[in-house]
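Problem: given the chain below (51 residues), write out its structure.
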Amino acid sequence: MAEDVESADLSGVAGTPTFCVNGRLYQGPYDLSGLAAAVQGARDRAALTTA
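Solution.
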């Protein structure tokens, strides 16, 4: 359990729920449109790196 707390601290997690989108800590609103925009942004960044 101490390892979990240390990992959360190192990742910037301060509570639950906490979302990460493609390895990035999500700090926007916890609603469908906010999370969908974060996922779309991650998809767009991924497409730029593979193009």
